[in-house]
Amino acid sequence: MTANRKPRVLVTREVFDETLDYLRQHCEVFANQNDVPYAPEALAAKLTGCDGLICSLTDRVDATLLAAAPQLKAVANIAVGYNNIDVPACTARGVMATNTPGVLDDSTADLAWTLMLGAARRITEVERRVRAGEWTGWRLKQWLGVDVHHATLGIIGMGRIGQAIARRAAGFDMTVIYHNRKPVAPELERKCNAAYVSFDELLAQSDFIVLQVPYSPATHHLIGAAQLAKMKPTAILINSTRGGVVDDAALIAALKNGTIRAAGLDVYENEPKLHPDFLALDNVVLAPHVGSSTEATRKAMAMLAAKNLLAALQGGVPPNLLNPEARSGRWLNLHK
Ligand code: DGY
Description:
Blueprint: E1 8-11, H1 17-26, E2 28-31, H2 40-47, E3 52-55, H3 63-67, E4 74-77, H4 87-92, E5 96-98, H5 105-120, H6 123-131, E6 152-156, H7 160-168, E7 175-179, H8 186-192, E8 194-196, H9 199-205, E9 208-211, H10 225-230, E10 236-239, H11 248-257, E11 262-265, H12 276-279, E12 284-286, H13 295-313, H14 329-334
Parallel strand pairs: 1-2, 1-3, 3-4, 4-5, 6-7, 6-9, 7-8, 9-10, 10-11, 11-12
């Protein structure tokens, strides 16, 4: 990048005006405010000559794209999950990659709770029935749900969002158990009032199971037919992390045949193309990947991505750098 030109930045999807205003103070910005996602070839073409990329989880940043953008120095994802970015491929090219942790923990935890409560009390099903005119009056045994209070909550993945979900359980007098690659620090366990158990213990003991692990080859189909069979027949499964962590076909079978009671989902394999069988099931609450979607949180995510990118392009260390190794000699030399 020559000293007398502003860095060029591509923003692949619609962002808030304040995000663009901030970027435009320092960069030449190519924005896609009409929000139609770019196909991979179109993204590669748009990225030509750009120094920075602000992308979303709908964009795949892989070795092919990076090869088409030799000038690229940094990629800022507007998401905490970054399974859409091939980080080792970025590192190999000296491209810094960043994500947006922290700013969405509480909103995403709230949504996981929305799904838990909604699935337990069948709220989308009964709402559909009310709208269809099926509610003819009060009955004692009408559309019975299950209690969330005093139940056992099992959290798989005890990172920041998992911890935020656990903390909320205190108000419902729940027993909280969790499974993680390794137990969290004792003071965090105390703060969350949560006890570490094995994966199988969690499957067997929980009334509500919330998935909060990142998606990767290691967590692909973490929950499939075998794991569903180990759950209580009354269990409710919540997935608000990433599609692919659950085998959707196996979950549909389990919901149909009563292996578990219900599910609450915000994410799916092949989203936004849901497995059609989900649509016919009453015992699943379906949300459209809105875990972090409050105005304040989405604004904070977009701004954090912009700040990460700018830090990288100005030769600094972005606050949420995923690949410190990318600040290689090759990259630093470009900024001398
Ligand atoms: C994330 O940040 O990973 C969310 O899924 C985006 O909504």
